[in-house]
Structure formats: C-alpha cells, structure tokens
Amino acid sequence: MQAWSLEFLPLLIVLSSLLPGLLIFTLKEQQVALRTSLNLLGVVLKLVLVYVMWQGVKAGDNYEFRLAFLPGADLILHADALSLLFVVLSSVLWLATTIYAIGYLENSPLRSRFFGYFSLCVSATVGLALAGNLVSFLLFYELLTLATFPLVVHRGTPQSLAAGRRYLAYTLSGGLLLMLGVSLLHLLAGSPDFTPGGYVLPLLATEGALLKVAFALLIAGLGVKAALFPLHGWLPQAMVAPAPVSALLHAVAVVKAGAFGIVRVVYDVFGVEVVSSLDLAWPLLFLAAFTILFGSWCALAQQDIKKRLAYSTISQVSYITLGVALLGPLAAVGALVHLVHQGVMKITLFFCAGNYAETLGIHKIRELNGVGRRMPLTSVAFTLGALGMIGIPPAAGFISKWYLGLGAAEVAQPWLILVFVLSGLLNACYFLPVVYRIWFGVQYSAWPAPQRFSQRLETHWMLLVPPVFTMLLILLMGLFASTELSPLSWSELIVEREFSFDD
Amino acid sequence: MLSFYLYLATAALLLGVGSLGLWRGPELLRRILALNVIGAGIFMLMVSLAYRPVLYGEPADSVLHALVLTGLVVAVSATAFALALLGRLLARPQ
Amino acid sequence: MWPAVLLVTLPLAAALLMLLWPRRARVLHFAVAVGLLPLAVSFLLQVTVSGEQQWFLGNWGPLLAIRWQADGLTTLLLLVSVTLHLLVSAYVGSIQRRNPLPAAFWPLSNLLLASLQALWLSRDLFNLYVCLELLGMVAVALVTLSGDKALRPALDYLLYSLFASLCYLLGVALIYAGYGVLDIPMLAGQLEANWLNAVALTLMTLGLMLKAACWPLHLWLPAAHASAPAPVSALLSALVVKGPLFILYLLWTTLAPAAFLPAAAYLLASAALGAMLFGGIAAIRTPYSKSLVAYSTVAQLGYATLALAFILRFNLPEFVAAMWLFVLSHALAKAACFLAIGELQHTLGARQVEQLKGASQTMPLAMFAFAVAGGSLIGLPPSGGFLAKWALLLGLWQSQQFFWLLALVVATLLSAAYVFRVVVLAFDRAAPTAPDFSPQRLPQYLALLPALLVWVMAVFSLPLLTLLKQEL
C-alpha cells in the first residue's frame, strides 16, 4: 500500500457519501436521473473503497488520517478491525437502503432534501465507525443526530414533528452527557487514540471515583442512542418516519452508533481490566438484561407492525450491550456478531413492513391475515427475519445467541441463560403469531389501500430487491458462519486482537 | 478648605436629586432632566477635585478640566439626541 | 501604528464625508469597508509576528496621553468587527431594492465601527467612557432607523445607556480622585482595597453590566434589538454588547485589588446563572421570532459572564479562552441568526415564530443558516460554540465546580430548545406560510456565510488559542 492511500483512504470513505450528499442538496426536484446516479455512484464508490480497506486491514495495514482539531485531541479517522466491522455493515446496508428509498419515495416531494440528509447520515455513521479517539467519536455522534433529525421529521405531519422533538430532546441530552464524560476523561487522561485494553489503567489507583463518574456519563450518553432502559422513549415514537428511515435508524445508523460506542468505551477506552476492577460492569449488565426482557414484553402488547419491531429493537440491541458487559471473549464475539446480524435481520423486517404498508396499506398486525399468498417473496423475507430474531438455527440470529449463551456460561453467570431463554420465548410469542397470520390466517376484509406497482411482481422491484438481498445475507451468514468471510470469523479476529494483551 | 467640602457636598446633593428624579419619574422628559442633573453632579465633583491641589498651593489639575469639557460636550449632545427622539415620539400619530 | 490608526480614522472620516456627499455614501462605504479588511488582517499578522504593541497618542507624556495597546485579543476583535461590518453592509446593499434602509445607515454604521475599534484599542479609563458613550448613541440612532415603532424602545435604550455611562463616569472620577491616573496599565496593581475603590468599582461594574445587558439589567435589550432593522440587530447583538464586556474584563483582571475578586466573582456568576436560565426560558416562550433571537443574546452573554466570573476565582487559562471564544463565536453566530431571521421575516411577512412554518421548504437557505448558527449557540461540535464550551467544561472539571456543570447542562438544553423550536416548525409541511415574493438568494447566502465561518472556527482552534495566549 502506498503511503498516501494509508492516510487518505479513511477520509475518502467518509467523503464518498458526504460529497454526493452535498451535491444532491443543490439539485432541483425534477433532476431524478442525476440524483439517482449520484446516489448510486456514492454507494458503489464507498463499497469499493471499503473493500480495499478491508483487504488492507486484514493484511495488517495501518490506515490513519489526522487533522488538528482541539488542543490535545486531533480529529482522527483510523481503521481497525472493529471499525471495519461497522463500516462494512453500514455501507452494505446503505446500498440496500438507498435502492429501497429510491423506490419508496418515487414521486414524493422534497426528495433532494431527503437524499441529501440520507447521505450525510451515512457519512456521519461511517465517520463514527472510523473515529480514532473519543473527541472524534463525539463529533460524529452529534453530527449523526443532526443528520437524522430532518429524516425523522421528513413527512412534516404533526405526529412526525412531535416525534422529532422527542428524538432531539433525548439525543441532544445524550450528546451533552457524552460531551461531559469526554471532557472529564480528556482532563484526566488526555484524548489518546483508542487502544485495545484501554488507556486509563495508570489512573486506576488515584482517580477511581472520577473514572466511575466518567464511565457513567459516557454510558448514559451512549445509552440514549442504544435505547437502553430508561432512555429508550424516543425510539417507538420515531416510527412515524418513512420506512427507509426507520430501517436506517434501527439497523445501520443511530441505534447501532450507541451500541458501537459502548463497545468502544468498554474495550478501547477503559479496558476490561479497569471495568472489572471498578465493578462497573454489573450495573450495565443488569440494565441490559432488564432492557432485553422489558423490550420484548412491551413488544408483545403492540398492535402496530412497526411499533412491535421498534420495541423488538430495544430488546435486541441490548444483547450487544449485555455481551460487552460480560467482559469475556466468547460473549464479546457474540456481541459483535450480533451487531451485524441484528442489523441485517432488523433491516429486512423493516423493509418488509414498509412493503406491506406501501403496497397494500397494511399497518396493523391483524390486517396481515393471508398476506403470504398476495406477497410471497416479501413474506418469506419477513418470516426468515423473524425466525432469525427468535434465534432458530439456520438463520443468523442463532449464531449470535449461541455465542452469547456460551459467553454467559464462560464467566459463570448461569442466570443469564435464563434471561436468554425467557427473552427467546417472548420473541417467539410476539413474532410467531405474526408469521402464523401471514401464512395461515384467513383474510377477512379487503386490503386497506392496495396499489399496483408492477404487472408481474408483487410490488415495485426496487422495494422487493432489498429485502430479498438482505434475506439472502441472513441465510448466508447463518449457513456459512464458519467460513473466513463471515462476520463471525471477523468478530473472532477482533476479539483476538482486543483480548490479546491479556495473555 | 470649607468651600472644598461645600462643593463636594453640592455635587453629592445633585447626584442624589438626580437619582431620585430618575427613580420617581415615569415621564420621559423628567428622566432626561434627571440624567442631566446627575451629569451635572459628576462634573461638579470632578471640578472640585481639580480644585484640590489649590488648597496646598499648587496649580489646579488641568487634566480634570479637560475631562469635564469633554464630558460636557458628550452630555450636551446626548441630551439633544434624547430630546429629539422624545420630540419625534410625541409628534408620532397615535 | 498606522494600521491601528487607519482602522479607527478611516471609518470616522468616511462617516463625515458621507454627511457632506450623501449621494456618494454607498460607494464610499463599500470602498472603506472592503479596504479595512486586508488592513485588519495584516495588523493581526503583524501583531502575531512581532508581539504586543502600544502607543501614546499624540506623543504626549504617559500621564497625559491616551494609551492604545494591541495584543492578540484586540486584533482579533478588530478583525471580527471589520468582517461583520462588511458582511452586514453587503446584506443591506443586497436588499436595497426591496426594503431600503434610510440613507443615515451608512454614516452611522461607520461611526459605530470607528467607536468600536477605538474601544478595542484604548487602555484609558476616560477615553473608554467616550467610546462607550459614542457607541451607545450611535447604536440608538441605528435602532430608530426602522421607523416610528422603534422610537419608544430606542428612547428607553438611550436612557438606560446614558445612566450606565454616568455610573461608569462617576466610578472613573472616584478612581482619579484617589490616584490621579487614568491609564489602565499604570493603574494595574496600584488599587488598594479601600471603600472608595469599592464604591468606584461597583459603580463602574454596574454601568458596564447594564450596557452589556447582563441579567437582571438586560431589560432594555430584547425590545431594542427586536425592533431595530435586522441588519442593525445583527450589529448590535454581535458587536455592541461585547464592548462593555471587554472593559469589564480589563477592569477586573488588571485593575481590581485581589481582595475584591471573590465578591465580584459571586456577583458575576449569579448574574450569569440568571441570564442563562431566564434568558433561555424567555426565548422559549416569546411569540416573536426576533425577540427569540434577542433573548438568546441575553442567555448567551451569560456564558461569557460565567467564564469571566471563573477567571476571577480561579486563574485558569481555560476560562480566559472560554470567555473570548464565546464572544467571538457568538458574534458570528448571532449575526447569521439575525440576518437569517430578518430575511425570513421580510420574505414571509411573518413576525411570529409560528408563522415560520414550512420555512425549510420555502426558504431552505435562510433556514439552514439559522440552524447552522443555532448549532454553534447550542455548542454542537465542531462549531466555535463547541470550542468555547469545551474550554469551559475543562475548566469547570478542573476546578471541580459540579453545581456549575449542572447549570451549564441545563442552559445548553434550554438553548437547544429555543433553536429547535424554530427548526422543527420549519419542517412542518401541513400549512407552510407562503412567501410574499420569490425569495432572494444573495441575502440568504450572506446570512449563511458567518454561520459557516463559525463552524470553521473549531478547526483553527490552535491558532486562535495562540492568539489569545492561552494553552489548554
């Protein structure tokens, strides 16, 4: 690798969506072809660059871009194995979501604004994944809030404005807590690059109390986006946004940013050793376990498809937090691989929910009766996603839950197995009846608002391809988990690098 | 010596009268006048301070005289401006 | 010395010439405004390279002469004033066809600039009084440009301002009575902690706080700033209220005896707390969009006052950096806010916040400018406001002021609430307010420019801190 590409590749990856996004803002509403090609050009370019970087990181190259920012804290974009996991996830899913959004928003107004912010949102996510220290992370975390807000309120209805206000109230408060934590830690330890094993160990003896405060502030700030109980209130309400935005919020950008941040803080800032010697993992563990059960329980009561999916996200994302809080290598593998699997499964479910709503006007679960015959492909995708969420073997979800269970056993927390079993049962309780209705329910009334998008296909092809694509990903990730290309082996590589300092 | 304190006391009295007028009066004209009285009090104070070296047989402090002159110019123009504004305000059709 | 002299005398001479040839006023104005910019930049570079400079005007002896001094902070303030002056003039020029300001704007804005520049440079207590008084009167005259409806707020502003100047002048007279010196560097460290000085400093502080609209002495500000024409409000909020704050800083960091500092710190800190909380709440509740921005000025000045209070209590570089970064970033951000809101108001014919519905569809550029500038007011990275808040946070953590950290969090949330109160409405698609005429692009871009500048500021944090001579 040449030196310049080692330095500028991370920047180019961020710019590959940022620049098209900024250009799209200047386009007129009617310039559909130009806008679409700009969008796709950005996506493809990003995927190519990410592939190059992936190969490089596997070979041990060190990608790093630095820019002077605050005194003592540069703006750093750095590619390590962990950031690459998130970068690959978000750029692949961005491809699917972009195609879906182009189809979904066909003929709706204000598309230039929408796609502009859409690209900014992905740029912020990728920047956040590549952020090399806490200050850079904070920067992209806040930019992500700003870029997603216009998407949440895109419809401009009173409900979406209310949801937008709530979203801002939660995320800006979270960002502020994060800023407090980052500034405290900056004062105590400076803002060095993220280091496997953390960098605060020398302070353990002298500044234990302040370290605890900093940890609490950071986790509270990140917990807002990760929808950790009791900071989850914004997520169900944000469902009024258009389906591609929900998909983005739940699978790619916002919720994942919070979970990813928790991973970073625990492994690369504080380090397993400090977290365990300060007894910081326990509260996080209990909170995550409670959120898992609480989210599932709430999902059970929802009659709206997207609302049920939203509460399911609250529950599923906490698996990641839980796996991190267990502090063992196997649990860490489970957490990281769940970051990917949950993203792919949840985006499939949201694509399908969007298809039902767009094609037939279905929003409620009871309206799904018999939809399997009318929209078979979408329904197969939905079924696979749901089965994966429950953790039934051929789908990807099984892998992550298996590792999480092993991890819990490894650190001798068998009561967590009970939590997993209980949550699995609850998952089954709120997903299986939906699947049953889709395939075996008897349609008792006409579809609420049917539309004909295509003569041969069940819906618009741009709405159909993304869920089928992600459904295949679910299957492949589940079936070929042991191959070298799978997220599982990549997660094992990360954990090997993160935990290697122990041995 | 006595006259020096007399001047000082007069300055203080003017300050007091002006402040009282400013505090009491809701009418704008009264407030403008009150501000002028306060200004006069401050200039009186400065002039009496300039007179202090004379008590010890030295020449009066000309710096203070210069300051008072400058201050007077500023005060006159400010008052003129305030009165002009007040005039426009009162002439405004209701 | 020449750049400094020209920075003051050029606008002053221009103002006088404009009175003689009113028909040439605009040409002259832009020639001077454009010419001043390279002058200010070169002066800043000169001071950066060769260090602090000072002169005694007219070659009088140190006791008689007025001392001018230019350090990094002063040159930075000079540059920001010149930049905003040019920007606001360009905005006024760009809307000239649509709603022209009276011709008096041109000489008055030059006078405003001249008095402000003299204020940044001067280090003489009495000369500062003259600058303040001139600044106040010109500001009032500018407020009256929006016609009869502004007369009452303008007159109130004038009376408050005159009273404040007199308080300050009385304080100056008392100090002169004790020491016979008006030169600030010569007085530095000389003042004893006696009751006469206490009275003098109290009077001066009171007057300056009244002029700088420190809570609870801010009552004149919202009415005056909201009723002035938008470009004038931009100048007033961005620059004029910062003048007295600068004198306050000089007074308390160089003149005041150490024994008075704790009391002053408590006074300033409680004023800051009131400003941040009540200013923010008032901005959230007011129905008019321009008073929202004006109340936000009250709230934002609270941050700078808070930093000043902590400079007095703990001599940490973080607080000095925070104070001036707040002042600089607020100057840019508030100019953008007022220009954007002014543009929205004119085009949509909407004085109330509620009427800004759908502005992000009808006038995306102006709304974007407001949102971007608002981001800096909230302190979102990577804006100048973030930089200032970051410095303040570091200082507060270092001195372990947990109560003030909490206050800062609440204040930040309040500022987010009033900024997004407008932004959320702008995304309302239900019943957008239709523009009265097709929106003009140039004025909207001019509103966006300072907003972008303030976001770029953070990237240049290191040179800025070097200029302010603070290391974090």
From TrEMBL, chain A:
Keyword set, alphabetical order: Cell membrane, Membrane, Transmembrane, Transmembrane helix
PANTHER family: NA(+)_H(+) ANTIPORTER SUBUNIT D1, NADH DEHYDROGENASE
Transmembrane segments: 6-26, 38-57, 77-102, 114-132, 138-155, 167-189, 209-228, 240-260, 280-300, 320-341, 377-403, 415-440, 461-481
Protein name (Swiss-Prot/TrEMBL): Putative NADH dehydrogenase I chain M
GO cellular component, one term: plasma membrane
InterPro entries listed in its UniProt record: CPA3_Na-H_Antiporter_D, ND/Mrp_TM
Pfam families linked: Proton_antipo_M
Places the protein is found: Cell membrane; Membrane
From TrEMBL, chain B:
Alphabetized Pfam families for the sequence: Oxidored_q2
Coiled-coil annotated residue ranges, if any: none
Membrane-topology descriptor: Multi-pass membrane protein
Compartment(s) of residence: Membrane
Gene3D superfamilies: 1.10.287.3510
GO cellular component, one term: membrane
Transmembrane intervals: 6-25, 32-51, 63-86
Keywords assigned: Membrane, Transmembrane, Transmembrane helix, Ubiquinone
Record protein name field: NADH-ubiquinone oxidoreductase, chain 4L
Organism: Alishewanella jeotgali KCTC 22429
From TrEMBL, chain C:
Keyword Signal: no
One Pfam family recorded for the sequence: Proton_antipo_M
Membrane spanning stretches: 6-21, 28-48, 68-91, 103-120, 126-145, 157-179, 199-220, 232-252, 264-285, 292-313, 319-341, 362-382, 402-424, 445-468
GO cellular component: plasma membrane
Record's bilayer topology term: Multi-pass membrane protein
Cell location: Cell membrane; Membrane
Record has Cell division as a keyword: no
Domain NADH:quinone oxidoreductase/Mrp antiporter transmembrane as annotated: residue spans: 122-415
Record keywords: Cell membrane, Membrane, Transmembrane, Transmembrane helix
Primary location: membrane
Family the entry assigns: Belongs to the CPA3 antiporters (TC 2.A.63) subunit D family.
PANTHER family per record: NA(+)_H(+) ANTIPORTER SUBUNIT D1 (PTHR42703:SF1), NADH DEHYDROGENASE (PTHR42703)
Name of the protein described by the UniProt record: NADH dehydrogenase
Source organism: Alishewanella jeotgali KCTC 22429
